[in-house]
Each structure stands twice: as structure tokens, then as C-alpha cells.
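Request: Show me your protein:
***
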Amino acid sequence: LTVWFPSPAVLRCPIAGCTTTYAGTLQGQRRASLLRHLQRAHATEVTSRWRCRRCSQVVQRPTTHPCRWEEPDQPLLPHGCGGCGRSLNTARGLYYKVRPASDRSPGNFESGTQSHEGMAGTAAAVDYFASIGASWGDDYAGRYPLFDGRKLNAHTGMDVLFDYETGLARRLIDGLVAIPGVTVQGVTAPDAMTRRVPTVAFTSDRHAPAAIARRLAEQGMFVWSGHNYAVEVVEALGLRESGGVVRVGPVHYNTAQEIDRLLNAVESLH
């Protein structure tokens, strides 16, 4: 008697009249239990082998079989009894997967529930970037001669946002540097803006970061204060004991006028 594997979710004894089943969590446990059962209960010697669904070839290592890679969506044969030909299962292939998951790649390689909300959010983010590129990215299309459609729009959209936010960051940094008593922590050189993101951290020699954040919040401007989860960086800068930094995070839906309003508010504190 030859039993073909991989194992299904439930293995049934192929011997006529026997109702024994095995439904352990691990495929190997189910297979081992069935083999022991056949040997002990039915005095049957059992061997295991794989057979390719596409070419019917018996293989030793199915994961390296050429058909596996030429046609990855086609799993190997369901299991069957070599003696009587009776099917043992509704096997889904060589991969481990939860039952609701698709039998097609890449879903068939998911061993648990996928992050559907993460996928939806990622797809929506890409669509949003593409909408920016479709509306304002024509000047950047020449950078991507091999792209078109949504792919092109997503890339040009990111370029639009990067350049706009870099302009906001430069305006913010230049304004902060000009205020006596204020120190910008990080890259400030005008020709080095491409080395940084628009998030800007600064300190004041007159007010604690928390006090500045509180005063700005009273005027409807929302910033952060403290170490902002960059504990080691703040400690390396020697700013932990003094309360860390004030962090300002302008993005593409902010305006130059809002940057000027924040600068005026910080200057009024000095």
C-alpha cells in the first residue's frame, strides 16, 4: 500500500471499512499518526511519495521539482491510496495555509489570516499618491520614461510631495535659525535639504520644549515635545534632562502661510 502526501486537514484511513481519522494541527503529525495506524491496526507496510499534478512524475523533493516553479499556482496531486486508488483527501498542495485562503499564489503561502486592513490601507495610499501625480506631476514625468498609468502617477506624485515639503522645511528652518535663542537640531544647510525629511526639531535657550508646545497649542498649532521615541538620539545630544526637543511636522497639506504663522508665534516667545 502506498499513501501519497502532502496531508489534507483531515486524514482518513484508506482501508475499506475503517473509519479512523486524524486531524492534528501539524501536517507531519497527521501523517505520522496515519502511518502508525496502518502498521499497527492493519499490519500494512507503508511508504510515502509525491506525484506531480502536471507531469505525473514521482518526485523525492517536490519543492524543487521544475513544474513547481513553471506553474506555481498548480499544487501537487491530492493524496491517494496506491493499492486501491481511493482518494484520501481534498489536499491543497505542498503549502501550509488556513482553509479560507486562496489556493492560488500568493495567498496559498499564507499560514494565517492576512492583514486585509493593511492591504486596503496600502492600496488606498498608493491611489492617493497616484491622484497627486495625475493632477500635478506632469513636470516630473520625464524622470520615468519607462512608466505609464498608475505606476507613473504614483512616482511623480511622490516627487511632487517631496519637493513641496522640502520647500516648507527650508522655509521653517530658515525662519527658526533667524530667531535668537533657537537652535535647530539636524541638517540646516540650504543645499542639503535632500538629505532630510520635513520634520524639524528645535530647542530654545529660554523655554522648555513642553512650555513652547503648550503655548503653540493655545494658538491652534499642534507640535510635539520630548524625545519623540528617539531616546538615544536625544541623550546623545545632551537634551534628555532639559525636556528633549520641540518637533514640528509640516506635510503637503500645510501652507507657507501656516509656516509663517508658527514662526511668528515662536518669535513672540523670545
About this structure: The CA atoms of residues 125 and 154 lie 10 Å apart. Residues 1-6, 68-93 have pLDDT under 50 and may be disordered.
